[in-house]
Amino acid sequence: MSASWGAIAREMLFGGLSVALNLIVVIVPLMIFVELMLAFNAAEKLAAKMGWFRKLIGIGKDALLPLLIGVLMGVSYGAGTLIEINRRAPLGKRDFALIGVFIYACHGIVETSVLFGIAGGNVIVIGIVRLLIATLITMIAARLPHFRKMENRSE
Questions:
Q1: How far apart are CA 73 and CA 103, in angstroms?
Q2: What global pTM score does this model have?
Q3: pLDDT by residue (tens digit) across 27-65?
Q4: What is the DSSP letter of 89?
Q5: Are 66 and 38 in contact (CB under 8 A)?
Q6: For 93, what's the count of Cα atoms within 13 Å in the CB-facing half-sphere?
Q7: Cβ(59)–Cβ(46) under 8 Å?
Q8: For residues 68-100, b (16+ Cβ closer than 10 Å) or e, as one string?
Q9: In the Cβ-directed half-sphere of 70, how many Cα atoms lie within 13 Å?
Q10: How many other C-beta atoms can be found within 10 angstroms of the C-beta atom of residue 55?
Q11: What does the alpha-carbon distance between residue 12 and residue 132 come to, in Å, rounded to a whole number?
């Protein structure tokens, strides 16, 4: 069975538009949320309350908001947010790298845990274990010589 070139072109066009619209629906509210957090100094308040966690995994205070967004929303949206925040107030290389390690180890905690829950897993246990593993991996990475030598701007 062969499809016509017109059908293929239509599918590419409408499929691409559909994906773009879905991204806009997620990214625009997320960026508005980030803007509000920055405008009302909520990121600083959150960083102050979670100072013990920041120090535990070795990141600076300015790195907490992009880390949390990456953990909740996943690698793609977290990376986009990280890039946007880094344009405004650049993070140090160490923070940037450690956020990457943490997000890689524990990305999309909500969406992935729910998927495992649908398959019969315990969502809370899966989420907590993933957070603990990501924390442990990031703590180890932060203490490696390569990461210790990196500069950091937001202590």
A1: 10
A2: 0.70
A3: 777 778 777 877 888 877 877 888 899 889 999 888 887
A4: S
A5: no
A6: 6
A7: no
A8: bbbbebbeebbbbbbeebbeeeebbebbbbbbb
A9: 28
A10: 13
A11: 41
Q: For the segment 111-140, what is each residue's pLDDT rounded down to a tens digit?
A: 777 778 888 889 899 889 999 999 999 999
Does residue 27 contact residue 77 with C-beta atoms inside 8 Å? Answer: yes
Segment 86-101 mean pLDDT = 86
Residue 147 neighbours by CB distance under 10 Å: 18
**pLDDT value, residue 153:** 58
Determine the longest span between alpha carbons in the chain, in angstroms.
Answer: 62
Q: Provide the residue ranges of all domains of the chain, joining segments of one domain with +.
A: 41-148
What is the pLDDT, as a whole number, of residue 134?
A: 92
User: Rounded to an integer, what distance in angstroms lies between the CA atom of residue 114 and that of residue 127?
Assistant: 9
Round to whole Å and give the CA distance between 100 and 15.
30
